Amino acid sequence: MEKIKAALLPAACALVGIAMISTAVYNREEFDVPGFVGSLFFGLFFLGAGALFFFLLTLPAWREKGNGFKKEVRNAVFPDREGKRDEGDAASLVASFRASFREYFASPGLPENSALQSDVTQLFWHVLHLKKRRMERLGVSLDFESSRRTYGGKSLEESARSDAKYDVTEVRERIDALRVYSAPGRKPCRKRSTELAHYVIAAARTKKRTAQIICPNCGAVTTRENLLDGCDYCGSRFRIEDLGKKVSGFALRDDRQTALDKYRDLKSRFGLWVTLAVTIPVFLLSLFGMFSVWGDMDAGFGMKLAAVIFGAVFLAGIAWFAARFLFQLLFDPILERIDSVAGHYAKKALEERKKHEEQNEAIFRRVRERDRYFSEESFFGGVQNKLAAVRFAESAREAAVFAAVDLRDAVERYRNVADADVVEMRLTGYERNDARETIRMEVLSDLLTAEETGFRKTGEKLALTMIRNPSALTEAACPPTVFLCGRCGRSLDLLKGGRCEYCGASLNLFNRDWIIGEYRILS
């Protein structure tokens, strides 16, 4: 609105000046000398003030880069919801991630050393890699379009925390995203998300920062990104601790607070639309009425013009205040009631989320009583990784290394699942004895299944138990760790079930990490 405001004041001053000069000239025979000179002087004064305001206000505003005049007028009534530009490392990282995510899933096959590997942690890259592999088998392609939006004056919200090993930043981005899943012979599935993208960004809490990593198996000097999917020289697979800030989780979600801000934006605009619907016709009718008596006015051209314009503006102003009063009298109580109800549910949802977070933290504190470097971020990332290994496994043997239970039924159930989003993870209990350490939890997910003619969207609730050897403790810092076969010494690939391709021996992950002790589908 800056260009509009900057143009109104000079225009008003110029119109008053022209009216006074016109009056002095038109009525010069009726004026005495002081009256003529005074009217002419003040007319020139207002013209000069208008010119001064034009050069000091109008020209700088119109020369300034940004929105054009038409766009400003349009935004006054129909505001542009495009989100703010990247400001800070977190905002830049999530923008880069969305671009590389789209490129990765749009590319054919399973790209090596993709740009996505520069933006994500290794565990999260495993999840995305397994999704892509499943889509390739099912012949499903994913087209992802997204843009940052602004509601309630907010585009991005960041919150930072730290656990025993990682500095964690949670980013909540207001977004308009569209995922289109398509496959030959199937009706495409469109999943639109118009509220929130939730990102988790993690970085290991260590002073060591290096762009190069030495492969512990062959000694090759390479980058972290090139090691994520295995050494380019010897093919060994590694577990790599992420030192710089990387995206470790991403989900598109409904969000009550964002929905409430969208409603409040619409509410404020609705009042403006109703007022304009009354004011504009009154202004046009007043203008037409004033012009209809143009010939009856005993004044100069400039004074007639000023009288017509200011008269129409005055009547439109009265209509504006009357419309605002009636709107507040008739509509505001209804809208305030809706706002109150929506605000109540948004507050309730936020309180529920906080309650779950506090319960999770209470359990994590109990784990850290014995394992001081235990990381909640690493734990949740590991759970998502193992869930992806089960849901996108091509055989029960691939998922076996991650569980102490038979997962054949679960693997078969997910055989045609093309995509799965973890919505929420809630911890429900913790136990420890001499045999094993146990964390019980519930996991809420959204699944997309490819069927003969199309796709089916379903929700899923899991009762999950994660277990590990009680003597397995988290290391303070982890260099690139290679998983080797205990029988023949060959490198093992966790993406292929941790089973040696040469001698058939399996990795005993229970002694190193959390594995699945119970996998029960509740709904």
In short:
With 523 residues, the chain is of the alpha+beta class. It has helices at residues 2-26, 33-63, 69-77, 89-106, 122-138, 224-227, 256-292, 301-330, 332-368, 376-391, 396-400, 408-413, and strands spanning 141-148, 156-162, 166-183, 186-193, 196-204, 212-214, 221-223, 238-239, 246-253, 417-432, 437-450, 455-468, 481-482, 515-521. Strands 1, 2, 3, 4, 5 and 9 form a six-stranded antiparallel sheet that branches.
What does this structure look like?
With 523 residues, the chain is of the alpha+beta class. It folds into two domains: 1-78; 89-257 and 350-521, no CATH class. Helices cover 45% and strands 23% of the residues. The protein has twelve helices and 14 strands. The protein has helices at 2-26, 33-63, 69-77, 89-106, 122-138, 224-227, 256-292, 301-330, 332-368, 376-391, 396-400, 408-413; strands spanning 141-148, 156-162, 166-183, 186-193, 196-204, 212-214, 221-223, 238-239, 246-253, 417-432, 437-450, 455-468, 481-482, 515-521. Strands 1, 2, 3, 4, 5 and 9 form a six-stranded antiparallel β-sheet that branches. It is elongated and about 115 Å long. The protein starts with a helix and ends with a strand. 31% of the residues are buried. The model has no long low-confidence stretch (mean pLDDT 79).
